[in-house]
């Protein structure tokens, strides 16, 4: 199977999943009322929302650059990246994620590697290190949300946990056995080709170690806190745009909980969390906060749609400014080790 066919299948599958999830999220909602909510929104707030989104990208690029600086210097003529290069790469990665979920991490690693001569696998390791920071914050956010929703935990159990458990119980043992066999086959292949993979794994491990090797941990912590502050602002401003802060008495604390639960939808491998984010966010607003379903759907569409437009347009602009066509970027080699 060629790379082009694999890419087409991945993109098509992701889009199909997104359409299905969007249908499930919006099923039963009064679309006329939802459109009325969107028409009356105060779109003047789009400017500060765009500024916050751009700031979050810049902060993420800065944090990534701190990790990249902790990579070994002698990597086939590798040189430190710049904030501009890191920002362009992050934006391009976001854009690719909307076409092929999870491919954006590889795309931004390949893009930065091409301009700094760091090994792609090393750069990808720094991306994983960066994600470790976000997972840690998300775990803290989920814990704090559970505390804030202590009086409504039975509703959370019914809304999120019970359906997930029911789906797991329906999994046929045949599929589980097949998964185990595939895992065993993958382990056999890994052992067989371990010698070939050693240089790649060693390079990846170097990138992964940057989190512990970095001497700028205070800056890493500061950038992480500031990134999530931006995220809270990006989640709160659509409430202001739709007049929901007054109508439903939604505060920044409520926004923190809603944003945290909505982030779980991004984990689903649909383009940019489309559909899954909408479903979880709508259900959270309706069930936990008593928001009208049409207003909740309008919020989910604006909060997700603004980021989609910003990241896709911004990624395309960054590609144009770099002068590297997306096709060339996607056709570059996957993680390998450069000749030193």
What does this structure look like?
- By secondary structure, the chain is mainly alpha-helical.
- The chain starts with a helix and ends in a 10-residue tail after the last helix.
- Helices cover 78% and strands 0% of the residues.
- Helix 3 crosses helix 4 (83-99), helix 4 crosses helix 15 (293-322) and helix 6 (120-148) packs across helix 9.
- The protein has one domain.
The proportion of strand residues reads under 5%
Which spans have pLDDT < 50 for at least 5 consecutive residues? 333-340
Any idea what the shape is?
Answer: globular
What Rg do the Cα atoms give?
Answer: 21 Å
**SS elements, strand count:** 0
State the domain count. Answer: 1
Major sheet, described briefly? none
The mean pLDDT is: 80
Class from helix and strand fractions: mainly alpha
First-to-last CA distance = 31 Å
Counted by DSSP, the helix tally is 16
Helical content, roughly? over 70%
Write down the secondary-structure element order. HHHHHHHHHHHHHHHH
Keywords:
340 residues, 78% helix, single chain, mainly alpha, disordered C terminus
Can you give me a brief rundown of this structure?
The protein has 340 residues and is mostly helical.
């Amino acid at each position: 199977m060629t790379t082009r066919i694999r890419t087409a299948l991945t993109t098509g599958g992701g889009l199909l999943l997104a359409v299905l999830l969007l249908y499930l999220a919006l099923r039963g909602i009064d679309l006329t009322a939802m459109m009325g909510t969107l028409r009356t929104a105060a779109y003047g707030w789009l400017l500060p929302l765009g500024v916050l989104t751009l700031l979050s990208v810049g902060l993420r690029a800065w944090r990534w650059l701190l990790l990249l600086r902790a990579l070994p210097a002698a990597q086939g003529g590798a040189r430190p990246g710049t904030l501009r290069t890191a920002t362009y790469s992050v934006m391009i990665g976001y854009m690719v994620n909307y076409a092929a979920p999870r491919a954006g991490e590889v795309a931004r690693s390949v893009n930065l590697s091409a301009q700094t001569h760091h090994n792609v696998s090393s750069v990808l390791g720094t991306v994983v290190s960066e994600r470790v920071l976000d997972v840690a914050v998300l775990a803290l956010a989920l814990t704090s949300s559970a505390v804030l929703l202590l009086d409504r935990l039975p509703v959370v159990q019914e809304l999120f946990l019970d359906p997930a458990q029911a789906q797991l119980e329906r999994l046929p043992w045949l599929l589980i056995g097949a998964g185990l066999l595939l895992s065993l086959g993958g382990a056999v292949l890994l052992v067989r080709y371990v010698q070939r993979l050693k240089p790649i794994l060693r390079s990846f491990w170097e990138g992964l170690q940057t989190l512990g090797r970095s001497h700028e941990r205070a800056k890493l912590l500061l950038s992480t806190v500031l990134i999530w502050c931006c995220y809270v602002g990006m989640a709160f401003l659509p409430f202001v745009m739709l007049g929901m802060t007054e109508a439903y008495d939604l505060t920044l604390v409520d926004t923190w909980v809603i944003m945290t639960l909505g982030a779980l939808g991004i984990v689903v491998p649909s383009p940019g969390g489309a559909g899954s984010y909408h479903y979880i966010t709508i259900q959270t607003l309706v069930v936990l906060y008593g928001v009208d379903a049409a207003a909740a759907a309008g919020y989910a569409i604006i909060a997700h749609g603004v980021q989609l437009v910003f990241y896709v347009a911004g990624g395309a602009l960054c590609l144009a400014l770099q002068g590297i066509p997306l096709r060339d970027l996607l056709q570059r080699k996957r993680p390998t080790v450069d000749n030193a």
